[in-house]
Write a structure and sequence with these properties.
10% of the residues lie in helices and 45% in strands. It has a four-stranded antiparallel β-sheet with strand order 1-19-18-17. It has a four-stranded antiparallel β-sheet with strand order 2-3-4-5, with no helix packed on it. With 387 residues, the protein is mainly β. The chain contains three helices and 19 strands.
Length: 387
Amino acid sequence: MFANLLKPKRTSLAMTAALAVVLFVMPASAVTLVERNIVSLGADVDELSGLTFVSGDEWLAISDDDNLLAELDISLNLGDASINAASVVLPTDTLGGTIRDYEGIAYTDPVRGTVFVSEEGTPAVREFSLTSFAEEAASPYTTPTIFSGNTLANRGFESLTLNPAGDRLYTANEESLSGDGNPPTDATGGPVRIVEYTVAGASVTPGNQYAYPVDPTHGPNGPGAAGTLRSGLSDLVALPDGNLLALERSIHFTDFLGSDLPDFQLRIYYVDLMSGIPIGDIGLGLEFQAFTPLSKTLLWTKDTNAGALQLPFNLEGLALGPATAGGWSVLGITDNQSAVVPVVGTPIPSELIAFELITIPEPSTFILALLTLLGLATQSRRRRTPL
């Protein structure tokens, strides 16, 4: 359609500039996340907290309880990213070594044949072979010193994601380090630190840190409930465009016959990784210092009402899957909260939730570019009209 405009004799400098607007500005877009469906995985495995795509129908999930590594067989409809069927492949495997609180997981590639996992306790990023399930010789990888002694219990490296190119790894503390911010309330959240690791062969080294602002809890505890309010960063997803998805999880509690039932709110944000200035040289006390946090845009939210006796929908893991007709598949996995089974009186299944991440060109961008092009073309014709 641009053939005539591209003929040298008929293209002025102004028209060339306008054409550049069409070609380079027009791709500006809005990102949407559409929930497709939720599918049960059954109760064969407990406390799955991280998810990663391998290839075809093969996915891997990690448990935060017993070093369990589960292969999942997930059939997706690549027309809209919905799940056709899903199951756990039994028997499951176990990562070697000490039992640790593993939370996030990221598959590398068939040649490397490993998975990175985030370990909440130390905290640390580790790597395991998918052949022997032993930890790699160079693992664990260096954790920035600011996390040492400042990470709150059970608030360490909850998230993990590897970018599609395989050369950048991202993780973060779940809630603010002691000294960076106060525990979350229903009025205030707090900053966490996203750490970017560079992956170059056997070398996996921490680099930039970015401040990410976590929302407050979605409400106070109900009357009679005494559980600890939570609001933190549960997982990250590195996207093909170089940005991130961030899964936040908020928890407050409702009293039910003397027991605290968790009420979850899940939030998924699109995070502009270019919007923040690295804070690697900023020490503790982020909330009291000048810094530029990453900007984020809410794409999806979900509440579960424990007071209505719904089963907890504790979404902990999120992962990018294969491309779809309109964008990309994104799957989430729930922790079945085996600890609260006696309260609700029934086994709680692990569940998968399917999303489609769609990039929609912004109409205003097309219109502006087209009007600019048409206006300049009209001016060019007028200049050539004999007096």
